[in-house]
Design brief:
Layout: H1 2-16, H2 30-47, E1 52-57, E2 62-67, H3 74-89, H4 93-101, E3 119-124, E4 127-135, H5 139-156
Helix pairs in contact: 2-5
């Protein structure tokens, strides 16, 4: 019994001395998601746009969803798809829209790509910790509203890219 305990302790000591350690990462939370959404909502209200707003975490899972009164129901799914596309590829969905407009239509076959402006990744340095997706107005207007939310995120994150 003592021999097994000693072997177990030696194994644990060997693992801890390997130099392997967990990384520390920032993560979105509900409070931050609500602040981001409030900025998007304010931009929409200022311009009389009715918007659906989706905030997802680094895995593309929904943290927060909001739909203004009289926003078309389809915008709920579109906003989520824009957010998932932005987080999945760590780039704005406008990039894919521009690719398609330039003739590179093969990008629409990529999984989780929605090539329509309005999805922005939320970056903490070089790490994508989530994304915002906005739908309900024109694509360009969705992009403007999403940027208002992303700007708030940057202030909260301390200027993280």
């Amino acid at each position: 019994m003592k021999k097994q305990l000693l072997c177990g302790l030696l194994a644990v000591a060997a693992m801890s001395s390997s130099g392997a350690e967990l990384t520390t990462v920032k993560a979105l939370n509900l409070a931050v998601a609500k602040e981001i959404a409030a900025a998007v909502e304010a931009e929409g209200a200022k311009n009389k746009w009715t918007l659906a707003i989706a905030i997802v975490d680094a895995g593309g899972h929904l943290i927060y969803l909001q739909r203004a009164d009289n926003t078309q129901i389809a915008s709920i799914d579109v906003a989520q798809a824009k957010a998932k596309s932005a987080v999945g590829f760590k780039r704005p969905t406008k990039v894919f829209e521009d690719m398609v407009a330039g003739g590179r239509t093969a990008v629409v076959k990529l999984p989780v790509v929605l090539p329509v402006e309005g999805g922005l990744p939320l970056m903490a340095g070089d790490v994508c910790i989530g994304a915002i997706g906005v739908s309900g107005a024109t694509s360009a207007q969705d992009g403007i509203a999403a940027k208002a939310g992303a700007d708030v995120f940057l202030k909260i994150a301390g200027g993280a890219k």
